[in-house]
Amino acid sequence: MRLPLPQFTAPERSPNYIAEVIETATTEFLAQCLEPDDLTFATMPPFGSWVKANDEESGNQIFAVIYHVTTSPIDSVHRARALGLSLSDLREQQPQIFAMLKTEFRAAIVGYQPPATSRNGTPKNGAKNGKGKPEATVANASANASANANANANANSNGGIPSPRYQHLPPRPPQIHQAVYYCDPEEILQFSEQLDFLRTLLQVSGAPVDSLTAAVIRNVYQLRQADRAWLVAAGRSLSTLLKDDYDRLRIILGQIHI
């Protein structure tokens, strides 16, 4: 008698869940975008967009900015070549191509947020305690990241202590296979209240830092609905960081628009 195979239902994916960490370092991480459910290429995140990843060991939520994106074959054997076909033609004639390509991005770490704590000082999002045992189990990385965000958002109403957002490198980067999400607009607005992260952007190695800084400021400026006071403060911070290099400052500010 042949027993039926167990059927597993895949959990519903959050729309902000876009990638998974596949390489990590102190100052940045490399993530691979998740494969779409249909015959199309993985979504390529915009240059200068904000992402976050949860470090499950410490409970820290790590914020980063995307500075380099690539789409390439999944191995070194199969190299992409021009076929002269549209996307619709590819779906009909060469559907296997979509499974043979991967989209990856590098993100520079600009800060982090520890987990919210209760009044007695214990973490509220399942971070591990000093003995290495989790205070609470989480079903998957999506639930863990949501728990961290919800704990901080509801800390005041639940009698907890909201955690600050630090604009410097975390004690450790996100680990391999951690989920990567787009940041919510409210998180970006709160994080950008301070401008220390601009120094980090100007020091990113191997990136077009002027264009990156301009893209990040432009995104935040648009989210803030053309808040001129914030833009003036950002310009003054840049002027100080660039040591009165007015040519670079002019180029960066010239790329900021609605």
SSE topology:
Blueprint: E1 17-24, E2 28-33, E3 50-54, E4 61-73, H1 87-93, E5 101-113, H2 141-153, E6 179-182, H3 185-191, H4 197-202, H5 209-223, H6 228-241, H7 246-254
Structural notes for this entry:
The protein has 258 residues and is α+β, with helices and mostly antiparallel strands. It has 2 domains: 175 residues, no CATH class; 52 residues, no CATH class. It is 28% helix and 19% strand. The protein contains 7 helices and 6 strands, in the order ββββαβαβααααα. Strands 1-2-5-4-3-6 form a 6-stranded antiparallel beta barrel. The longest helix is centred in the last third of the chain and has 15 residues. It is globular and about 60 Å long. About 4% of the residues have low confidence.
Question: Briefly, what is this?
Answer:
Helices cover 28% and strands 19% of the residues.
Kindly give the count of domains: 2
Q: Please mark out the parts with pLDDT under 50 across 5 or more consecutive residues, or reply none.
A: 129-139
Distance between the termini: 67 Å
Please, what is the average pLDDT? 84
Oligomer: single chain
